[in-house]
Design brief:
4-stranded parallel beta sheet, 5-stranded parallel beta sheet, 29 helices, 703 residues, globular, alpha/beta, single chain
């Protein structure tokens, strides 16, 4: 049997269909919502009267009837909602789930694509103004109005025990959905064929690749011109003028594709090479030996794998008939371990002399060992595809496999998988073994196993902890965020916690108390850090994370503000200044040890070495020399006292001394040649243990 492919509707068509579906319910809604008030503009009078991210309990929570449920999962499909204020009985998160459960989208700001603004008490003024300006396309409704829209759809059938039970291996349960199955699902193969969906639905054409289409075009242009530019030394053909990345590609013999796993780096490289007629495609990954090749030419192709690759790179004639030539794909370059000794250096050396294109692939290009390879390649960053693009591709897969799923549920899965399509396909295949449909409630309730740990930037972690939305995170979630980088995140919190206006404070006096409590927690975190790293008590790291980051963030959480430290101060998370201060502290301690005096004596010493020169000019040089000799100070000590050990950089006492006097003092110090009669203590080095003598050598000596 042949199945007719359904035409995909555009976003405009989906929106028009959704509004037409709810036209009767929309016509019955009042022009203005009943349970709606604007937030009072008191920020000028009391800057601490802020509602940013903070949500009050709904007034009728627990006393109002449960929201209606419809059996049509696509009732609100194509429609966009924005939520503001405190609703009558639902929290914002619950209202978001209700909308997504019926196929709608929820955004954070009003735009030209917004269809409904769900407002309540203390609604935001900017969102209400945006909806009022777009009153022809954006409708304001309250919670009751949203319930009326959902109630206009077919009511949800009560689930029975047989409907809720998963399908077993012996037979399938009857479908509980009110809508009949699509014709395509009746003729699709069952999921018991044993093939993995990751392999079965791997893109076979470039049009099937999700996202990163610009990188695909750049790789295609580079490969198309490789032979002309690097082998025949001809000018490139068909290159886009003015494109800096394309022009940079033409000058290099290799590209470096980097990005998170599962976004299609290897697939794109292989598909582009096949589409342009390259062959054979040699793929080398972490399972192959990728160490340095032997210098002996006699081994050649009969040697190890790296020797064979070197021979291939130096021979442009090797390739299949009718193909452009061979191409090398070096996958997982950042995974070269100790067994691949000299592997990165070997790749860099091969790139310089290669006659075939090389595509290197890695996940993290910022590793220290990747620096030589980055200098030899053109970098192309692969980014995670959008959740809308992932959901569109997964809908096609679900239709082929007979799994009924709506777009909102798949978008939520895409967010949880952190853009990794392989993990998402594996989860969908596992779900298809026992179920015929996937709903938004299934994703929210039972898909926690899909959550993938993502490498979050320490700056984003700091924003998540100190921002208003951080109050929704549990302590365990906040600790897990801190473990993204336990060395840097506590320092970022310590640097930025005073720049946030605490939600729990109502005035300046309360704010000072809150900041003091946060600072107290940071001191306990520093103590725990010393115990963990100094005594090896690694079991205290969770306590350190709580006291150094979670505890102060809980007190100081709120909207970020500038402190007016300098003109045009940017309202962003600042990098920790402690790292720079700590680096200079070590240098200052070494200079103090060399000078042989405490830091509290330095201001007086500077005065005794400058005042005679300011008052008497060159006649004060003997007095300065006598003072330095009495304290056994040399010319280098004088430079350190006035430069490195000067804590207040703005105060420069030597500016008061004429240049001629300073030159005369320098000549006098050089002529005097003061030398210390003592040597500063040097840092002790750990003595290395003597190497044990080999047993064989010892026996030989005895003989």
């Amino acid at each position: 049997t042949t199945t007719t492919k359904k035409k995909e509707l555009t976003p405009k068509e989906l929106r028009a269909a959704g509004l037409k579906r709810l036209s009767a319910a929309i016509a019955s809604l009042p022009e203005k919502p009943n349970k709606f008030t604007l937030r009072e503009q008191t920020s000028d009078l009391n800057p601490y009267n802020q509602k940013g991210g903070e949500e009050e309990n709904p007034p009728n929570r627990g006393t109002k009837d449960a929201p209606p449920q419809s059996s049509d999962e696509n009732l609100l499909s194509g429609l966009t909602f924005v939520i503001t204020g405190t609703l009558d009985s639902l929290l914002r998160e619950e209202c978001t789930d209700l909308i997504k459960r019926h196929g709608g989208r929820v955004t954070t700001s009003v735009s030209g694509k917004t269809d409904f603004l769900v407002c309540g008490l203390d609604s935001g003024g900017s969102k209400v103004r945006g909806a009022t300006e777009r009153k022809d396309t954006c409708r304001m409704v309250d919670e009751d109005g949203l319930f009326a829209l959902i109630a206009s759809g077919p009511p949800a059938a009560k689930a029975s025990a047989s409907d809720s039970s998963p399908r077993t291996a012996e037979g399938a349960r009857p479908a509980a959905s009110a809508t009949p199955p699509s014709p395509s699902s009746t003729s699709t193969p069952t999921p018991t064929d044993g093939a993995l969906w990751v392999t079965k639905h791997r893109p076979c054409q470039l049009s099937e690749v999700v996202g990163n289409q610009m990188n695909v075009k750049l790789i295609s242009s580079w490969l198309r011109n490789f032979r002309d530019v690097h082998v025949l030394h001809k000018p490139a053909r068909g290159s886009a003028p003015g494109n800096k990345k394309a022009e940079e590609l033409l000058q290099k013999k290799a590209v470096l594709l980097s990005g998170p796993p599962g976004v299609g780096k290897t697939t794109c490289a292989v598909l582009v090479a096949k589409s342009l007629g390259f062959g054979p495609i040699i793929e080398v990954n972490a399972s192959d030996a990728r160490g340095k090749s032997d210098g002996d030419r006699k081994k050649g192709l009969n040697g190890k794998g790296s020797n064979q690759i070197r021979e291939l790179l130096n021979n442009r004639a090797m390739g299949k008939a009718g193909h452009r030539g061979a191409i090398l794909v070096m996958d997982e370059c950042d995974g070269m371990s100790g067994s691949d000794r000299g592997g990165i250096a070997e790749i860099v050396d091969s790139i310089k002399r290669t006659k075939i294109p090389i595509i290197c692939i890695c996940n993290d290009k910022y590793l220290q060992k990747m620096k030589p390879l980055r200098n030899a390649c053109v970098e192309l960053d692969f980014r995670k595809p959008t959740k809308e693009a992932v959901a569109k591709r997964m809908l096609q897969v679900c239709e082929k496999e007979g799994l009924k799923a709506n777009k909102v549920a798949l978008e939520t899965l895409a967010e949880r998988s952190n853009g990794d399509l392989r993990i998402l396909l594996g989860h969908l295949q596992q779900w298809r073994l026992t179920r015929d449909s996937l709903t938004y409630d299934d994703v929210r309730g039972g898909a926690n196993a899909l959550d993938k740990d993502a490498d979050i930037s320490p700056f984003k972690v700091c924003d998540a902890l100190l921002g208003p939305e951080g109050k929704r995170l549990t302590i365990a979630d906040q600790v897990n965020l801190c473990f993204q980088d336990m060395d840097l995140i506590p320092l970022l919190v310590q640097e930025n916690y005073v720049n946030h206006r605490p939600l729990v404070s109502g005035n300046e006096h309360q704010r000072m108390k809150v900041v003091a409590k946060a600072a107290e927690g940071i001191t306990y975190g520093d103590w725990a850090s010393e115990v963990v790293r100094g005594q090896g008590e690694w079991g205290l790291m969770p306590y350190q994370a709580v006291m150094a980051a979670v505890y102060p963030a809980t007190y100081c959480r709120g909207q970020r503000e500038t402190m007016g430290l300098y003109p045009n101060e940017m309202n962003i998370t600042r990098f920790s200044a402690w790292l720079g201060k700590n680096s200079s502290r070590g240098k200052v301690e070494r200079e103090l040890t060399a000078v042989g005096m405490g830091a509290d004596c330095l201001p007086l010493v500077r005065r005794r070495m400058v005042d005679p020169l300011v008052a008497n000019g060159k006649d004060g040089i003997p007095e300065v020399l006598a003072f330095m000799d009495s304290y056994n100070l040399t010319k280098e000590d004088r430079e350190a006292i006035f430069d490195t050990l000067r804590l207040n950089k703005k105060e420069d006492l030597l500016k008061k001394v004429p240049t001629a006097v300073k030159s005369a003092l320098t000549r006098a110090l050089t002529k005097a040649g003061n030398v210390r009669d003592w040597e500063p203590p040097k840092p002790s080095k750990a003595k290395s243990k003597p190497k044990a003598k080999a047993k064989g050598k010892g026996k030989a000596k005895k003989k």
